[in-house]
Design goal:
Helices cover about 45% and strands about 25% of the residues. It has about 280 residues and is an alpha+beta fold. It folds into 2 domains: about 5-135, Jelly Rolls; about 170-275, Orthogonal Bundle (Arc Repressor Mutant, subunit A), CATH 1.10.10.60. The strands form 2 sheets. A 6-stranded antiparallel beta sheet has the order 1-2-9-4-7-10. A 4-stranded antiparallel beta sheet has the order 3-8-5-6, with no helix packed on it. Strand 5 (about 60-65) and strand 6 form a beta hairpin. Helix 6 packs across helix 7 (about 205-215). The chain is globular and about 60 Å long.
Length: about 280
């Protein structure tokens, strides 16, 4: 008897927004499956790339004429327009989480993140599970709006894959960095603290803090904090009638013009264009 549960946001290619092809890199689908004695074969050409995490069980994958046996704790990355040949074994429980992606600069971005391997043995990867759940929640609420937020989650996931694979002994440092990350998420409506203040908060030197922050978030503390602000600004533009100036002041920008400039730099369009295109 097969017992299973799972969820995938979009079952057909026609459901996926064309916007994912216009971004440099974008999330276009995600889901998970947990099954007891539920073998399954996935064998077809996929337009979109996929990051697959095997949380429990075993999968045999053939990609680029190479066979890989993936045990629990493995991540495999399929590039866009590749042939997916996957057999999920059904001897016991199989739990897998996956994110589909596409974009105009996928290869360049992955190379920049030093994600050049096909398979990564990362061990227990609860961050992948949490990221999938956050993406599913956001897709349900916002669909293909709020893409910057999903992109941040996605790129952060790749940064964590890199860190887990190349720097497996930095877990304690990551725990210290999380103090600053949590503070940023709780206080992005205000002005950013100095790097010295964040470093002190994490009990690190300034140089060490910035080094580890870049390692785990693939960006600087300031850029990460500003991205949180702009992600919230996008939500306000979509869900409120506030003017652009009101949103800028809500987020503690002294100058609405500077806010608009930063918004365009991060998203590629002005706040007014962002609002117009989505209504």
């Amino acid at each position: 008897m097969v017992k299973s549960n799972g969820e995938i946001m979009f079952h057909y290619a026609n459901d996926i927004s064309p916007i994912v092809y216009d971004e440099d890199i974008a999330v276009c689908n995600c889901g998970f499956f947990i099954g007891e004695r539920a073998p399954y074969t996935h064998k077809r050409k996929e337009v979109h790339g996929m990051v697959l995490y095997i949380h429990e069980g075993v999968a045999t994958v053939t990609i680029n004429n190479e066979k890989h046996v993936l045990n629990a704790g493995s991540v495999i990355i399929f590039p866009p327009n590749s042939y997916h040949n996957i057999f999920y074994h059904g001897d016991d429980i199989n739990a897998r989480y996956y994110i589909y992606f596409n974009g105009t600069k996928v290869k360049e971005i992955l190379e920049d993140l030093k994600i050049t391997e096909t398979v990564y043995k990362v061990g227990n990867f609860l961050e992948f599970i949490d990221t999938c759940k956050l993406m599913i929640k956001d897709f349900k609420k916002n669909g293909f709006k709020n893409m910057t937020y999903k992109k941040i989650l996605f790129l952060n996931l790749f940064a964590r894959i890199h860190a887990k694979y190349y720097y497996p002994n930095l877990k304690s440092a990551n725990n210290k960095i999380s103090t600053a990350i949590n503070h940023m998420h709780d206080n992005f409506m205000y002005k950013i603290l100095s790097i010295d203040e964040y470093a002190t908060m994490c009990n690190m030197s300034k140089v060490t803090f910035v080094k580890y922050f870049k390692l785990y978030k693939n960006t600087t503390p300031t850029k990460y904090f500003n991205a949180l602000k702009i992600s919230n600004a996008q939500l306000q533009l979509l869900n409120t009638d506030k003017t652009i100036s009101e949103i800028a002041y809500d987020l503690n920008f002294d100058d609405p013009l500077y806010f608009s400039k930063m918004f365009r730099k991060i998203t590629g369009e002005s706040p007014s264009d962002f609002r117009k295109k989505r209504f």
